Amino acid sequence: MTSAQATLERPVARDSAVLDAIIVGAGFAGLYQLHSLRDKLEMNVRVLEAGEGVGGTWYWNRYPGARCDSESYYYSFSFSDELQKEWDWSERYPKHFEIRRYLDFVADKFDLRRSIQFNTRVSQAAFDEAEGLWQVTTEAGERLRSRFLITAVGCLSSANVPRIPGLESFKGQWYHTGRWPHEDVDFTGKRVGLIGTGSTGIQAAPVIAEAAAHLTVFQRTANYSVPARNCAVSLEERQQIKADYASIRAMARTTTNGYPFAPPPISAMELSEEERLARYEAAWERGGMRFRATFNDILTNKESNNTASEFIRAKIRSIVKDPEVAEKLTPKDHHFATKRPPIDSHYFETFNRDNVTLVDVKASPILEITPDGIRTQDGEHQLDIIVFATGFDAMTGPLLALDIRGRGGLALKEAWAEGPRTYLGLQVAGFPNLFTITGPGSPSVLTNMPVAIEQHVEWITGCIADMRQRGLNRIEADPAAVEGWVAHVNEAASATLLPLAESSWYLGANIPGKPRVFMPYAGGMARYAGICQEVVQKGYEGFNRSA
User: Fold this and answer.
1) SS3 8
2) Which of 176, 334, 346, 492 is positioned for an S-S bond with 501, CB 3.0–4.6 A?
3) Surface-to-core class of residue 122, CB atoms within 10 Å of its CB (0-12 exposed, 13-18 middle, 19+ buried)
4) How is 121-177 classified by DSSP, letter by letter?
5) Bridge-partner residues for 67, per DSSP?
6) If DSSP codes are grouped into helix, strand and coil, which group holds residue 258?
7) What residues form DSSP beta bridges with 217?
8) Residue 101: CB partners within 8 Å, gap ≥ 6?
9) What are phi and psi of 20, to 5 degrees?
10) Contact criterion met (CB below 8 Å) for 465 and 446
11) Which tens digits make up the pLDDT trace of 237-249?
12) What's the rounded mean pLDDT across residues 177-181?
């Protein structure tokens, strides 16, 4: 372990004094929450982090091609002007290691490591009603107590390895993209099988194909993707961004997705086909997430969405030389951007390589993993390495893994047996003093995450500050408020095309047996932040607070 890592690996005492707050996770959310409570409210806070360093999801995400799909200048903290001025991003879309360097820089700048306990995985957190405290137990057997428990575990941090018969018999190496080894994996001369063509698989495939002797991509669902057009950020661009940061951040807080850009106030159906195609072409050439902001109704109007979907389908057919392969890669079972919309660097071009094969597992399902590879209905594929780009048990998985138990020993898993039920994505009825940063029922994964994280951290910090000022020790979401919010989350989702993508992990569809519930809040980041502020103005309406 280097000096740039933990100063606290284990608690000194088995039964420590009561902390004001325990934060679980040291990614974007955990670092900012620590800074806000410790340095602004002067609270006694400890962060528990499973990894050896800061980074959260990005500590584990090290797979080939891993990089952010939001542009670097706004995928970053806005709370410190000094931080914004001091840090320079090198690329339009930063690679995983640059994001970790950034978070290391943040941790050092604000002296956060001294309050972070690394190499510590939480095995259970239980609320003690008599004491009004959370009792947190780690896998190493340490027990800690705190007034507040704040989860900053990320929405995409619980890796999903599909239960395919025979995996234990495989003689080669296998990896999951969300738990990639810290040392490089050498694909040179290897026969590689990549399972999954979501955002991660789309990033990994081109990089693996360049090194491997042969890459076989096992695709369940064909996906839309827009070119990233990644490039270096020039000195002039960096200077301009820093000069404009105030307006950039202000704009991001007013938009649906927390990006510093918004679609023009025009429907795709208001233009002629020629004008519409010209706009799509310009957006395609620019690349990135702005493509879905070409028009203002792509996610609410089927006709408009069909124009965007068909534009991308036509691009796929024009890029991929083999018509049969192109047809397999062309999505037909969902609308564009109703699943997480990937951006890529030469993904579709990868299937023009002689050393790449595409297997449609809907047409030829995977039957088992054998000692020598993967056997599908059509035969066996000989492999040396298997890469699972099969995503995560999103949003609820990381929280349920903590074995959180509230009043009366109620397990969060039981409370959410039919799907997550929260108030504002911030609290759960029956679990006093538990805050969930970017929890289910908040905009979270539908947004530029740092914007959603900062809004949640600042709301939680303001709430705790208000409680301390009033001499209050306990806060819990009212069950009626939870029911009302769950209904509103469903209503907001139904106003969009998002729930129509039946294979989406937004619905938990990638996890066998998981309740099919649309989990994030689709009403927009700006609208959501306004609701949260209104709740505060009404004396924390929907929360029960007591001394």
Assistant:
1) strand
2) 334
3) buried
4) -EEEEEEETTTTEEEEEETTS-EEEEEEEEE---SS-SB-----TTGGG-SSEEEEG
5) 95
6) coil
7) 194, 358
8) none
9) -70, -40
10) no
11) 999 999 999 999 9
12) 93
